[in-house]
Amino acid sequence: MKKMLCPQCKIAAMYVKNEAGERRLVYVTSEGEVVPKKEEEALEGFDLNEVFCLGCSWHGNPKRLVKY
Each residue of 3-61: pLDDT tens digit? Predict the structure, then answer.
């Protein structure tokens, strides 16, 4: 699986949040699919339209990530 990268700091590690403010670690595939880092975790209830970079302050739509 090829992972998309943060356009600012070029790392693949992202997270998403739900309404309670809980975080779930994710990656975004080259097809634009948001997938959990741990396969056994579900993303139900999490906002998949905004991802947050673990390496810098960037956040935004997963479509704005870059390929490496």
Answer: 999 999 999 999 999 999 999 999 999 999 999 999 999 999 999 999 999 999 999 99
How far apart (Å, rounded) are the C-alpha atoms in residues 65 and 31? 11
CA 10 – CA 6 distance, rounded (Å): 5
Spatial CA neighbour of 59 closest among 50, 48, 68: 50
- Alpha-carbon distance 41 to 59, whole Å? 22
| SS3 labels along the chain | CCECECCCCCCCCEEEEECCCCEEEEEEECCCCEEECCCCCCCCCECCCCEEECCCCCEECHHHCECC
Residues 6+ apart with CB under 8 A from 12: 3, 4, 5, 6, 27, 28
